[in-house]
Amino acid sequence: MKVLEETLNARIPSGPLDQKWTRHQGELKLVSPNNKRKYTVIVVGTGLAGGSAAATLAELGYNVRSFCYQDSARRAHSIAAQGGINACKNYQNDGDSVRRFFYDTIKGGDFRSREANVYRLTELSTNIIDQCVAQGVPFAREYGGTLANRSFGGAQVSRTFYARGQTGQQLLLGCYQAMMRQVNAGKITLHPRTEMLDLVVANGRAIGIITRNLVTGQIEKHCADAVVLATGGYGNVFYLSTNAKGCNVTATFRAYRQGAYFANPCYTQIHPTCIPPHGEHQSKLTLMSESLRNDGRVWVPKKPGDRRPPDQIPDEERDYYLERLYPSYGNLAPRDIASRAAKRVVDEGRGVGPTGVGVYLDFRDAIRRLGEQNIAARYGNLFDMYQRITDENPYKVPMRIYPASHYTMGGLWVDYNLMSNIPGLFVIGEANFSDHGANRLGASALLQGLVDGYFVLPYTIGDYFARFKKLDATTDHPEFDQAEARVKDRIRTLLSINGRRTPDSFHRQLGQLVWDKCGMSRNADGLREAIAKIPEIRQEFWENVKVVGTGEDLNISLEQAGRVADFIELAELMCRDALAREESCGGHFREEHQTEDGEALRDDERFCHVSCWKSNGPDADPDLIIEPLAFENVQLVTRSYK
Amino acid sequence: MLPSSIAKKAVVAVTGLLLFGFVVVHMIGNLQVFLGRETLNNYAEFLHSMPELLWAARIGLLTAIVLHVVFTVWVWRENRASRPQRYAVERTIRASRASRTMILSGLLVLSFIIYHLLHFTVQVTNPDYRQFYEHQGRPVTLVSYEPPPQPSSSRPEAVNGAEDAPETIASEASPRIETIPAESVPVEARRDVYRMVVLGFRSPLIALTYIIAQLLLGLHLSHGASAMFQTLGLTTPKYRKAQFLFGPAAAALIVLGNVSIPLVILLDHWAGLGLFDV
Amino acid sequence: MNLTLHVWRQQGPSAPGRLVTYQAKDVSPDQSFLEMLDGLNEELISRGEEPVAFDHDCREGICGSCGVVINGVAHGPEQTTTCQLHMRSFKDGDEIVIEPWRADPFPVIRDLMVDRSAFDRIIAAGGYVSINTGSAPEANGIPVRKEDADMAFDSATCIGCGACVAACKNASAMLFTSAKVAQLARLPQGQVERKRRVLNMVEQMDKEGFGNCSNYQECEAVCPKQISTQNIAVMNREYLRASLSGA
């Protein structure tokens, strides 16, 4: 590994923290309304970030081409977010403020995020609620007609807005509807069932993408004045995750191969409340909203190997370990902390359920206190979902939960303007690395996607257009032909291998390895082992994968194979990053670096930075570039939720 | 511009509502057969006493039927076109049999209506009904009917205004029915709807036809009389359940009421109870 | 358990299709229906045959991608999405016929995959509040009755899977369209465009070639989100009022 001396300019505006964004907005260059219609922007992905960006850019007058692999712009996985969206409106009068939300987020991210980005995120959170309400998003309300809030992990105030357990769905449909309005107005062209397979960079600037039409198999070239990637995270590298089956890293990983820096790939979030896996056929894991921890109590038996049914274990023989270990936050401890605590008790042999991999989330006391009806009103749909999947009634029997891969804080590096190191390539939402540091707080993913798409990118993209000379938006550049050739070559190769193993079998193998070695906790030996093993998987993949059908047609196994191929390469990068970061922080827990009672031990001297990886191609080690993190407004303290 | 799907269905619902109203009124009117000859014939006479209104109602109802049928068939054809390829396995979870057979029950009821009009109104199926008259509470029968030579003759329609018709008194020999020559219909005589109905339903075939038709009508209304609220957007969350019960309940009452007429008449006839005085 | 599957295979929209029989062996009752199909596909790929194409994504019942007709019922025997249907709803030796959504406006793309873009066009015709980013008033500025917010939410939970169309004997899209109309008609934010919205959306719905509503209630019976046909009554009322009063 080579550490490059290159300095990355994050373009963080000067001035006091609370004036940075306002001042920056005033300094950003503008594109006049007449000229906006001469610019075309490609937006890949139609989740909260991509959808909100596409809609807003179109409203501003830009021509937008929107791409998604799903059949409609309404289906991206933002839709599955259950619990809510944070905003420091302080409607509850419980002492919330931008400053407090900012601090919670910085602390939640274990002091590994940029102050300025986080401040902007929290500052704009209030506008997001206004915007969504105006779109007709039916947030929960009080009888007086005002908006209701609930509390969420990692915060001591109630700042989470929600629409029952389907907040992500309601927000995404808001975006989708705003997009469809622009489709109707002719400002957005939709390309559903289309997958981005490569980025086209010419003269150092992103000028377009290569896509494959998933129905016809057609490889298409699309040029634009800017490319926005809003393609989500790479949690599916673990094979089993709470991500949608189709979620993949191809768009951002191909951009990485074309020169974009990949930042902090080892920061992955393992969500503490998922339904435990049941068997080898399992295709994905289902999340149970973190909001359940508001009323549910997490426990395991005190005695290892206690196989009694939960109702026969008396209270004094139960270990409510989160309440015991973290009395001030209790069951609402942040995700990484709650996840690791669950792993610890399971590793001690105190796990529950048929596989012994799981802990109880018990609503007995809440039902006694509030009545079954009130619990049903709060969590009814989640309880139904749980019962459907497990065939157990959570009103009677405690839920069983276990952590699962859920979100990835790492992503393509971007500056304050959300532009990557390749001019013209913007990355928003989960796909970038920007706002959550080493761990994301619950109900802040929706927020980041929407803030990026509605209120940041639409300003900063204009600045890019105004500063850089307009290029001829045409696919005549030789780089388009080269990119197309790369894509076609790869497809041809995949189709010609004709081996014996299905793409999924490689994915499962990879996922298990990464989960074991680079999952909830990591150590140097395991990571080295994985770094040695992954290239072997990669080699076998390229020799023995079985892809049926042709490239000129709808071909599911070809789609899968392409995505798995990129996951394999990404997994290696993740492990390298995890190995290089010799500290524990947030979602990245290195067993060598922990306190006596098993908490994460940061090393602010050596690792208070963003690790950015620069590709040297699949067969050479990547280089590392460091972006130091400067904390001027908060003190780096040990993150404690005790 | 063609009407939208919702507008078409609204036409079906509004005409359906009209026809439903007519069915109810018609039933109440006809149930008077159980109150005896005088009541029913009074009612018939009353209806015929306002020919303009009667004809307006008839034209209105006819239009409603035509619109109801034309729009339904139109909608039905569109619905068929919306699923050109059927499922290999077809299953129904909630849709009632009534709702799935609306077009069939509707068309059968339509053919019944045509028969019913031919039977009782135009009387082409049973021309002898034209000879049934009532005089001073007694039934009389015209033995032969010939077109009268003058306009002021004793045509049935002209009964009320036929001043110069000969004064003939019907026989006192009732309950046996007096037969009198057509020319000698008394001025105060009126059509004997009562006898027509009772004699009509003493025929088992006719009674059975009516009973079956009423069951079909009931099936049709059990869905239609609820669905019209939904189609016209009149269902409300609070009364929704009641509105969905309305159709079956109303249909049951209508079937009960309408079937009772032929059924009771036929059973009475078979049992020889003599409840009906013809 | 072992099952016999009869799966609709069709190369493309205009190609003829047919039911093809496969055996699914060693299916676990804890598997989801789609995981069972995954297993079939793994086997087909291993044998060098083309896997069965079906739409799916989130696999937790919210994205609305998945949906097949199982033994004549959209999404199968449980009232949920296909991805949330578990094999414990079947028993050893069962024969399962799997067909795509069938409706003229939903042409088959391949096998069990259909094109539902007609739904997108219905939303594009008016299923939104026309407000540009940045011009929103303070969120608590307009109070919304809790009852209205709750009812709007109930309508808004539609996932756009298309089961309503698939289940309707008339392939009608009334439930889908009405859910959006009713949601926005219920909220103060949706009032300004209320009349125009319903007229435009219904016009588009008709243009796509969906059938009419015969009040069968089959749509409600299969809707994974239990969207009520009361929404249809609301849309009918909204539509008739808008067309009678002029938009």
From TrEMBL, chain A:
Reaction catalyzed: a quinone + succinate = fumarate + a quinol
Protein's cellular compartments: Cell membrane
Domain FAD-dependent oxidoreductase 2 FAD-binding: residue ranges: 41-446
Catalytic residues of the enzyme: R335 (proton acceptor)
EC number of the protein: 1.3.5.1
Transmembrane segments: none
Main location: membrane
A single Gene Ontology CC term: plasma membrane
A GO term, aspect molecular function: electron transfer activity
Membrane topology summary: Peripheral membrane protein
Keywords: Cell membrane, Electron transport, FAD, Flavoprotein, Membrane, Oxidoreductase, Transport
Domain Fumarate reductase/succinate dehydrogenase flavoprotein-like C-terminal: 507-641
Top-rank lineage group of the source organism: Bacteria
GO terms, biological process: anaerobic respiration
Cofactor(s) annotated in UniProt: FAD
InterPro entries registered for this protein in UniProt: FAD-dep_OxRdtase_2_FAD-bd (IPR003953), FAD/NAD-bd_sf (IPR036188), Fum_R/Succ_DH_flav-like_C_sf (IPR037099), Fum_Rdtase/Succ_DH_flav-like_C (IPR015939), SdhA/FrdA/AprA (IPR030664), Succ_DH/Fum_Rdt_flav_su (IPR011280), Succ_DH/fumarate_Rdtase_cat_sf (IPR027477)
Family per record: Belongs to the FAD-dependent oxidoreductase 2 family. FRD/SDH subfamily.
Protein name: succinate dehydrogenase
Source organism per UniProt: Tautonia sociabilis
TrEMBL record, chain B:
Signal peptide: none
SUPFAM superfamilies: Fumarate reductase respiratory complex transmembrane subunits (SSF81343)
Keywords: Membrane, Transmembrane, Transmembrane helix
CDD domains linked to this entry: SQR_TypeB_2_TM
Xref: InterPro entries: Cytochrome_b-558, SQR/QFR_C/D
GO cellular component: membrane
Keyword flag Iron: no
Region annotated Disordered, chain positions: 143-173
Superkingdom of origin: Bacteria
Transmembrane parts of this sequence: 12-35, 55-76, 97-118, 205-223, 244-267
Stored NCBIfam families: sdhC_b558_fam (TIGR02046)
Full protein name: Succinate dehydrogenase cytochrome b subunit
UniProt source species: Tautonia sociabilis
From TrEMBL, chain C:
Enzyme class: oxidoreductase
Biological process terms in GO annotation: respiratory electron transport chain; tricarboxylic acid cycle
Catalytic activity: a menaquinone + succinate = a menaquinol + fumarate
Cofactor(s) required, per the database record: [2Fe-2S] cluster; [4Fe-4S] cluster; [3Fe-4S] cluster
Residue ranges of every copy of the 2Fe-2S ferredoxin-type domain listed in the record: 18-102
Signal peptide limits: none
Domain 4Fe-4S ferredoxin-type, residue spans: 149-179
Domain of life: Bacteria
Pfam families in alphabetical order: Fer2_3 (PF13085), Fer4_8 (PF13183)
The EC number(s) this enzyme carries: 1.3.5.1
Molecular-function GO terms, alphabetical: 2 iron, 2 sulfur cluster binding; 3 iron, 4 sulfur cluster binding; 4 iron, 4 sulfur cluster binding; electron transfer activity; metal ion binding; succinate dehydrogenase (quinone) activity
Record key words, sorted: 2Fe-2S, 3Fe-4S, 4Fe-4S, Iron, Iron-sulfur, Metal-binding, Oxidoreductase
Cofactor note: Binds 1 [2Fe-2S] cluster.
Family of the protein in this entry: Belongs to the succinate dehydrogenase/fumarate reductase iron-sulfur protein family.
NCBIfam families assigned: dhsB (TIGR00384), PRK07570.1 (NF005746)
Protein name (record): Fumarate reductase iron-sulfur subunit
Source species of the chain: Tautonia sociabilis
